[in-house]
Fold this sequence. Notes:
The complex is a heterodimer of chains A (246) and B (471).
Chain A: H1 11-27, E1 31-32, H2 33-40, H3 44-56, E2 60-62, E3 68-71, H4 73-78, H5 89-101, E4 105-111, E5 116-120, H6 130-135, H7 141-148, H8 153-156, H9 173-186, E6 189-192, E7 200-207, E8 213-221, H10 231-245
Helix pairs in contact in A: 1-2, 1-3, 2-3, 5-10, 7-9
Chain B: H1 11-22, H2 24-39, H3 43-65, H4 74-82, H5 84-117, H6 123-143, H7 149-173, H8 186-189, H9 195-207, H10 225-257, H11 260-264, H12 268-276, H13 281-314, H14 332-351, H15 356-388, H16 394-417, H17 420-447, H18 449-453
Helix pairs in contact in B: 1-7, 1-10, 1-13, 2-3, 2-7, 2-9, 2-10, 2-13, 3-9, 3-10, 3-15, 3-16, 4-5, 4-15, 5-6, 5-13, 5-14, 5-15, 5-17, 6-13, 6-14, 7-10, 7-13, 9-15, 9-16, 13-14, 15-16, 15-17, 16-17
Amino acid sequence: MSDRGLTGRQPGAVQNALAVLEAVSHAGAGVSAREVGELVGLPPATTYRLLNLLVGEEYLVRMPDLRGFALGRKAAGLAGGAPEPRLSRAAKEELGRLRGALRVGVHLVVFGPTSLHCADVDPELPLRDPYLLERHLHAGAAGRLLLADQPDWREVHPPSRLVRLTAETPVRPHQLQARLDETAERGWAAQAGEVHDDVACLAAPVRGADGALVGAVLLTGPRQRPPLEHLPAARGCAAALEPLLA
Amino acid sequence: MEGLRRRRLGFLEVLAQSVAVLAPTAALVTVPALVVAAGGSLAVPAFAGAALLVVLVAWCVRHAARRMAAVGGVYSYCARGLGPVPGVVCGWALVVAYAALAVSSCTGAALYAVALLAPGHHPAAVALGAVLVAAGAGLVTARGVQLSARLVLALEAVSLTLVLVLLGALVLRGGTPAEGARPTGAVLVDAVPSAGGAALAVLLAVTAFVGFESSSVLGVESRRPLLYVPRAVLWTPAVGGVVLLLGASAQVVLLREAPLEVLLSGAPLDGLVRAEAGGPLPALLDAAAAAAFVACAGGSVTALVRVLFSMGREGVLPRTLGEVRESTGTPVRALLVTLPLVALVPAVALLAGAAPRAVLSGAVTVAAFGSLLAYALVSASAPVLLHRIGELTPAALLGGVVASASCTALLVVAAVAGPWAGGQSLALVFAALMVPGLLRVVWLRRRHPERLARAGVYDEPTRRSVLRAEP
């Protein structure tokens, strides 16, 4: 009954599971259980058991017709961290326009399936510590956009990683959950004093055509409240970046 | 299925839902005596048979639960396997079963709480208590299901240990033989039952397991539904079956030697404990039983409103049942519709003069009829579903056929050949309760076949959860 049913003592089972994963990856979304069995060369009952196991663990998902399979978001996590940022000149110009208009730091963050990367930091008003934002997704506004977008944030950022950076940082799952609910509801994220005592920030998401989160425009300033007065400008910039990033 | 709090519940919460509704403690203090009264010498085999049957059904439910997550639970599995008409019949049977289970557990909780606080005969107090328990269960359900999982599991663990230790101690000490000419329970315990009586005994033993499948309604709300739900659905009756079989066997041994009145009192375990052990033990037993019944009431209401919610969302029942309260993500409209019924049925029956134990066992028998019908349908639907998606194996086919045929046979024999007092009259009550659901199916088929076709919506993977949607 435990989650640790699979020990290192069943190399065959692990090999078969990986072979099934590989077969689905090669055959593409929508491959049926029977096809996977034929590709891998396993008996049907074993194939179905492995497929269901991998679906249960969310490395695979069943397609809406229940017949076909596709790689799940956890398989995406296996492929590794944030994408290498390659910004187009148009995107840089868009950010430059906003930087010229506002007196707060304007940064661009891009998201991988389960991670974020500070792709373009404001040269005049830089982030004090980009590493903190990339590592402590629960504290910064951009990280919360990513977590609020997950079906279950615990898989990306386990509760054991709710580190206290300041007195305001949410360190209990329910505190973070409340902030993520708020973020998901209004569509943007903000925080004050939760990463550094004297810094507040605001993040407006950049989404692809299918609604997937690809990046965020992040505004930071040395103040006690998030720069909410610049929310329309940040969202405008995010909207302008959509065709350039997605 | 927008509106419900998605993917919040961990495995313990999902397990607690099944355990709460199966309510092993409540089952142990009420069901064995009923089984002995109906099945006589076949009481223990009846329990074993019921356990095997239920585990087989659970195995079939597990096939579907590993492949789809749905708010309707077993109802949705059945609708996707056998099609909308059998699906809605199955769903309505579950609605009747969960409602009857809620009625019986509200009555049971009130009965044991009153026995704890004021021993004696107080039907009005029990009626009031049942209303209070129903209101409490409604409040907990409205607050959200996450509230009480750990509490439920801890309570069940403590009270089960208590009951099993008590029974073990009594068996080891040997019961008090009945004095002189007083008849012992052996008169009933060693009686050979008729075929109908035996079937009724198995049916009553199945009542001890009813609700094991209820965690399937948390498909949308659990964090990893395709992993947690099948696990909870299979392990709850498997482990529960062993515990119940032990407890029932011990009670049969004790009741054979105890005076006949103890067996006929309706609460033989209480009688046995009171006769053998003084001090706080009987009070502890009452408290444990009351707590288990409260948990069962909460769990039954949780499952009931989710099946109704699912039907409301699909348009199979009025759409207003599909409304959700924003702040808590609970199907509050379905709750408001059902709660008065759950509270008033036992209150009215008790105030009209029905004995509390009769209300308890009657409602639980109706729940067993509803569940068995749903089990028969869902067991049959599992192989069909697997065949449709191209994953049928010989074992799954055989299991589905055997489970479905056994459930159907048991249902028919208990309804047709069972004794009038226990089986047939309650089968009629169950049949009458099924009528509105059947009429609805006929009406939908004639007027709104498109709504019927939506029966059994499940949680499709959203685009976000697929890495590459295009081949």
